[in-house]
Structures are given as C-alpha cells and as structure tokens.
Design a protein that fits this description.
By secondary structure, the protein is of the alpha+beta class. A hairpin with a 2-residue loop joins strand 24 and strand 25.
Length: 725
C-alpha cells in the first residue's frame, strides 16, 4: 500500500510524520538554538556518546531528511548522544556511515524510495569524527509525495535499553557461533572492537570441568566489526596461541574467582603480553587502546569446585575514554546472561553430535563386488531438534545377497533417533537370520506397537506409530530383487538402457497402524540386470508444498536417469540431492540411497535342481567335483566342499520334501554352498551322544566352514555355508 495515498488525518503515516516534524529543524531553527545546541553537544561522554547518567529527560531522537539522490537536505543531530556525528545539508548520507556499511544501507534507502514502504527499527552504526561508532535504531520513511525523498529517524541506543534488548536477542539461537557473534555485535555499544573466545570444549559440546590454566585452549568465536584486519591479528575461527589462552584465562581468574579486569593503556597491555607476536595477535591495530576482559562463567556441575570459565570476551576502546564502573557492571551483566545461553548451546551441541553419530552410524559404509552403494543424509536444521528418524542401510546377507533398507520414523530429535536405531538394528538382525523382507516388516510392525505403549512410548512424549520402511534384497546370481514395503515411497529402478520406472507394491498404511485393516505385507520380485540403478529415498527429497508428491517423484526419476554408468556414485548422489533439495530450504530430513548392480559372472556360479532320491547326494558330489576342478580349487578345499555338500544334501533328502536345489558361488577365495528344499524344519546344531547314529552331519559342516545358517524362501528353506578355499 502506498502510504502517501491515505487522506485520513489519522493514518499511521500522517501520525508518524507529524511526530517527527517536531524534530526537523525549520528555517532559522538551528541558528536560533545557537549556544544551547552547542552546550547540549558538549554533554556527550565516552566513545558511545552516553549522555548524563540518570538523566531522565535526555533527548535521544534525531531526524535527517534526504532527497531522491540520498543527499541531506536538513537534519537535527544536536542532542547529546549524537555528539561527534557531523552532518551538513548538501552532503551525502553515506558520509555518516562506516565504509563497510555504505552498500547495504544505500540499497535500503533506494528500496524505500522505489517501493514507498517504510523500513523500520534497524540497528545501525554511525561514524563519529574521531573514528568511533555510535549505535542507533534507524527507521527509513518515505516523505510526502509533494516533497519526495526520505525521512530517516535515528534513535540513540541508550545503554540500559541496549543491554536489555541484547540480552533478549542473544538467547534466540542455540547455535554457538551465532550466539557468539550476537554478543560481539552487542558489545560494540561499549567499545570500538569486540572479540569472543571460547574454550575448545564448548565447540565440541564436552563438559568443561578442567580449569588448569595450562590445559585451557581458546578459539576465537566472534569478532566485530567485520572489516579488514592487520596481518597476524586473530579473526573468527583462529586458535589463540597457548600462551595467550593462559594469559587471558589467568588474568580473569584471580583468587580462584573469575572476574572482569581492565588494562587501561597500550603500554600496560604490552607489558602483560610480553611478546610482540602476542601483541599483534590480540591487539586490534597500532592505535593506543585499553581493554576490558570479562569471563563467561557458569556454575559447575555438582561436585565441581567453583564456577567454570567457558571463555573470555574482550572489549577494546581508545585509551582516552577509560571504562567507568557503571559500564563494567553493564558488561558483566550482559556477558553473564550470555554465558548461560552458551552453556545451553554447548549441551545442545553435544546432544546434536550424539544424534548425528547414531544417524551416520546407520549409513552404508561400502558396497561389495556385486553391488555399489552410495548414500546422502541431510538433517532439516543443524541442531539436534532438526535431526529426524530418516535412515538407510546396506549390508551383506548370507548366500552372497545384499540388503537395502530405507525407513522414516515419525518425528524429530532424540525420541525419533532412538526409535530409528532400534528399528534399523532389528531389521539387520532379522534379515541376517534368514527372514524375508515381508517377515521382517511384520516383526517391525510389532516393535513399533511395543515402542508406543504407555511405559516406553507415550510416557516419554513420543509416538512412532505411522513410521514407514522399505526393504529390498538383491540376489547377484539370479539378478533379481525381492522387496516389501510398509507405507514408504516406491523405489525407482533405472534399467541399463536408461529407462526408469517406479517399483510400486500393494499399498500398506505403515508400521504400527493398528487402526487400519491389518493386511499381510506384499512381497514383490523384479529383475535388476547388471548395470541397473536402484534409488531408495525418504519424502523430504521429493515433497514440495507447491507440487504433488507424484511430481516430486517424477523429478527424482529424471535426475536419477542422468546418472551415467561411469559416474562416481557418491558424487552422483550428492548431485541429485543438491538439485532436488538445496540446503537452504529443507523442510524435512533428506535421505537418498543409490545402488548400482553388477552381479556375479555366470562362470563363477552354478545351480542344479535334483529330485529327492537315495542317490541325490552322490549325483551332487559328482557335479560339484567336476565344477571345482574347472575352478582350480585346491585339493583340500575341494574335499571340504564335497563333504559339506554331501552332508547338506543328505539332510535335505532325509528331513525335507520335494526337489533339492544346489547353488555354488565363487568369490575370490570364498566359496558359498547353498542347498534348498521345500521343507520347513530348521536344522539345529545339537550335542550328539557318543553312540548316536544321527546329528553328526551339522557338526561336520560347523567344523569345515567359516559360517553357516538357514534362510527361508517362498518354497521352504535353504541351508547355506561359506568355506575358505
């Protein structure tokens, strides 16, 4: 809305303009004030222009009128807090600003001229004649249409008002760096340069309990103002020399009690530091300076003697303006309030690190020689509250297979991360035990229901109901994938010819959805020939409030199709995530798993299907022996493999039903033998008696193999064993 278009005398624009008009000098007004104005100007004290302490009638408002070229047409800067700020009609408004602020403020001024929309209450610095800064609250108002130009109101930030405003603003972020920078900017009201240095343990989130001076190391967390500094001066992110850390912490910790100190002049500072290198590192420039050092102190944990020093703040100003006691009290009050926020941010950082460690722990490490995997995980926000329950995992399974798992646990924070960890580990254990994807989801469904009971779930204020999961198992010999889905978004399969499809399954409401009709989890099988690319992901990658979820999946499908067979898979995964979910606008956790299949070469595998008969074991030995000779397996390895095959086939004929399937896979020096039948009895290793005629076959298998086990199939079961040949 154009504020000049209102004809009502009570419009907000007219009310503000009328109020400010009392402060705009009219013709001859400046000259009329003459001596009084000069007398008021001489009342300014200190580098920040602080007026009379305790003076309740001090004027803190000034007004500057500008034309459309941003040139001053009239101004009123005679109030005491503005002493030293010189402005004259005909000069550019930029002359009142520090050089580094000119581009930003000029852009704001021109924007108000173009849009006729006011820019209100922006904290800004003005430059005094002596080079120091004055902190003001600046509002930019469009002038009346007949006049054109701008009216800029400046309110000097009174110290106590600034103190309370800063204390409230600093506590709005749990990011350690942002908290430190907010403190440094606020401290500029008391000096020319402000620095904040934190102990290393604050950055890592560790408990700060060791107070021996030689153990403390400081890192510069913030520095204000932002400008070009002399070479050798410590800026944000630099580690303080160990001697400087000891000096600063030792100086503020006297008589075992942290307290503020003031070094009044440069000569004293150089005597204290005692090293030109430290002077260059800590003193901002070559001008005469004094410094106030105020420790950031919190109460130590129970059993810790005395308070804990989290770091040190330094406020530098010209030595001809010494720090007064009232100013030191204000500084200590602000730093003390900030210290509590820093400690809270430190604890939050530790919690965040713990959650991310769990999240990263679940990410796939490497693939295998049959499948290549890559994964990307991005939390919503850089703090632990934004870390959710998205997870992916990839791990080898018995029989040369590989599991690919993706899940999305409801919620964010530690509750979601704990549920995520439990479901992920349970899924891995059940899949490794030989259960199929659909059977694993049935167990996870029960687990989510148990997590949500009164004792473990709702009493803790967290519910995992509605979590989703998709499990795919890749067989490199058959070049097929079996998959089961519990309410999760469908995977995307890119075929070797470049075509892409979404692998949909029978709809299911998700895990723990007792309110819905309980349906068995659908098991689907599809071909994934060598060179195929399978993408599993969570909804944060494809959801957009503007478009439908199908359009998001379509964009992901096109992005995955652009991944070439010769591309580095990890770089390709990062590229896809960067294209679909830029870091600056995440609304939910983003997780992506890419798996490129390579499979086993046909000459390294063999499969036979034999009828269950008395001579089946002998036929199996003959077939396997001929194959092992072609594979150039050593005599000892061949004898062990033949004995294992003989025992497994014999057990399948005796205790199973139907035909017997034999599969051998050679991978380097590892040989995998698998014997399947249509029985459902589970072989168990038992201690056989001295005179027992049965039960010794599995003992032989156990002794000759590196590991063995059972997995369940659609037809029955398969007993597998791995040998080092």
């Amino acid at each position: 809305m154009d504020p000049t278009s209102s004809s009502s005398p009570d419009s907000p624009f007219d009310m503000v303009s009328g109020a400010l008009a009392d402060y705009v000098p009219r013709a001859g007004a400046t000259a009329a004030r003459g001596p009084a104005g000069s007398q008021n100007a001489r009342r300014g004290q200190g580098p920040a222009g602080e007026g009379r302490e305790g003076g309740g009638q001090e004027q803190i408002l000034a007004v500057v009128n500008l034309d459309r070229n941003l040139t001053i047409t009239s101004c009123n800067l005679e109030a005491a807090p503005f002493a030293g700020v010189t402005a004259a009609p005909g000069t550019a408004f930029s002359a009142l600003l520090p050089p580094e602020d000119v581009p930003t403020v000029t852009e704001r001024l021109r924007n108000v001229i173009e849009t006729q929309e006011a820019h209100v209450a922006r904290v800004q610095r003005l430059r005094r004649d002596d080079g120091t800064d004055l902190l003001v609250s600046m509002s930019i108002l469009p002038a009346a249409a007949s006049q054109g130009g701008l009216t800029v109101s400046l309110i000097a930030m009174a110290r106590r008002l600034h103190l309370y405003a800063s204390a409230a603003a600093i506590g709005t972020s749990l990011d350690i760096g942002e908290t430190a920078q907010s403190l440094a900017q606020s401290l500029l009201a008391w000096g020319d340069v402000a620095a904040v240095d934190f102990d290393f343990a604050v950055w890592t989130g560790e408990a700060v309990i060791e107070q021996a001076h030689e153990r403390i190391r400081l890192r510069r967390a913030a520095l204000a103002p932002d400008r070009a500094w002399p070479e050798g001066y410590l800026t944000r992110g630099d580690n303080l020399p160990r001697e400087a850390s000891r000096l600063l912490v030792g100086a503020v910790t006297r008589d075992d009690a942290p307290q503020a100190i003031v070094i009044p002049d440069r000569a004293a500072i150089e005597r204290v530091l005692g090293d030109p290198r430290l002077v260059r590192a800590l003193v901002p420039g070559n001008l005469p300076a004094s410094v106030a050092c105020i420790p950031l102190v919190v109460r130590g944990p129970e059993g810790t003697p005395g308070p804990i020093v989290l770091g040190v703040t330094e406020v530098w100003r010209r030595q001809e303006h010494p720090f007064r006691d009232s100013e030191l009290l204000d500084l200590q009050e602000l730093v003390a309030k900030t210290a509590r926020h820093v400690d809270l941010a430190r604890q939050h950082q530790r919690e965040h690190a713990q959650v991310l460690a769990l999240q990263r722990r679940l990410l796939p490490r490497t693939g295998s020689d049959t499948i290549e995997v890559a994964s990307v995980y991005q939390p919503t926000t850089p703090d632990s509250a934004g870390v959710g329950g998205d997870w992916v995992n990839s791990f080898p399974l018995p029989g040369d297979r590989t599991a690919l798992v993706v899940g999305d646990v409801v919620g964010h924070g530690l509750g979601a991360a704990a549920a995520m960890g439990q479901l992920s580990m349970e899924a891995r254990a059940l899949l490794s035990a030989g259960l199929g994807p659909d059977e694993v989801l049935e167990r996870l469904d029960e687990t989510v229901t148990l997590l949500d009971d009164t004792d473990a779930g709702l009493a803790a204020g967290y519910s995992a109901l509605g979590s989703t999961c998709c499990i795919a198992v890749y067989d490199p010999v058959d070049h097929r994938v079996v998959m089961s889905n519990a309410g999760h978004l469908p995977p995307i399969l890119v075929h070797p010819d470049g075509s892409a499809t979404t692998v949909t399954a029978q709809p299911h409401p998700g895990l723990g959805a007792e309110f819905a009709v309980r349906e068995p989890f659908d098991l689907q099988s599809f071909a994934a020939p060598p060179g195929s690319l399978l993408a599993l992901y969570t909804d944060g990658l494809v959801e957009d409030p503007v478009d439908s979820i199908d359009e998001g999946i379509g964009r992901l499908k096109e992005a995955v199709r652009e991944v070439h067979p010769w591309d580095d898979l990890q770089q390709a995964a990062r590229r896809v995530v960067a294209e679909l979910a830029p870091q600056g606008r995440l609304r939910d956790d983003v997780t992506l798993l890419l798996a490129r299949t390579t499979g086993r070469r046909s000459r390294d595998t063999a499969t036979w299907r034999l009828p269950a008969a008395d001579d089946t074991a002998a036929r199996a030995r003959a077939l396997v022996a001929a194959l092992l000779r072609r594979w150039r397996i050593s005599d000892q390895g061949r004898d062990s493999a033949l004995l294992v095959i003989s025992e497994l086939v014999t057990n399948a004929v005796l205790f199973g039903t139907g035909p017997v399937t034999i599969r051998l896979v050679k991978a380097g020096h590892r040989l995998t033998c698998e014997v399947g039948d249509v029985g459902n009895g589970r072989p168990r290793l038992r201690r056989a008696g001295l005179l027992a005629d049965s039960g010794r076959g599995l003992h032989v298998v156990h002794k000759l193999t590196t590991r063995w086990g059972v997995r369940w199939t659609d037809a029955g079961k398969a007993v597998w064993a791995e040998l080092d040949v």
